[in-house]
């Protein structure tokens, strides 16, 4: 009984430390990149054991909310999507989700992009960036083409100007492009030209505020990728 109660007390202590750090973020005492109090300081200020504070920081690190810097301490992580990326990567490894699930997510998310752009438009700076990426894709091959494809789609995601949507969808885009890299790298010239044409159509239709054509262009793009993905499995 004493052992059980001691274990419960320890669990409550590390949760207390987690809650304290989260509250500091909510109160604005900690922001992205801020150094969090040391294990010793947390232990003393909260009246809990060092093991509990160490466990709390370890849990927050595993969630991608805290990052450790050797010889410096622990900081609020700059990569807020790390936890999402790690979770989805694990799900892919465990085969509880598939590459097709990532593709389907991207297809559905494209509808959100279209809806946001129809309401907010695309800034001139963003247009220049996206058209510049398309120009570079015309002569790119291999990993350069994979990278540019990723930059183009992330640029479209950022057109939503919604931090939450960007944070949630970017990790999916990163894992998606890893899965699709073989499709892009091994595509023949005809497929590359088709993909380039579809990227151009997507952007042109978004810029022209044509909702139906934008959605159709996205669907054609993902139909092509899905067919190619099926061809290499």
UniProtKB/TrEMBL annotation:
Protein name, entry field: Transcriptional regulator, GntR family
PANTHER family: TRANSCRIPTIONAL REGULATOR, GNTR FAMILY (PTHR43537), UXU OPERON TRANSCRIPTIONAL REGULATOR (PTHR43537:SF5)
Pfam annotation, one family: FCD
Organism lineage string: Bacteria, Bacillati, Bacillota, Clostridia, Lachnospirales
Residue ranges constituting the HTH gntR-type domain according to the UniProt record: 11-79
Keyword entries, A-Z: DNA-binding, Transcription, Transcription regulation
InterPro entries assigned to the protein according to its UniProt record, in alphabetical order: GntR_C, TF_FadR/GntR_C, Tscrpt_reg_HTH_GntR, WH-like_DNA-bd_sf, WH_DNA-bd_sf
Repeat is among the record's keywords: no
GO molecular function, one term: DNA-binding transcription factor activity
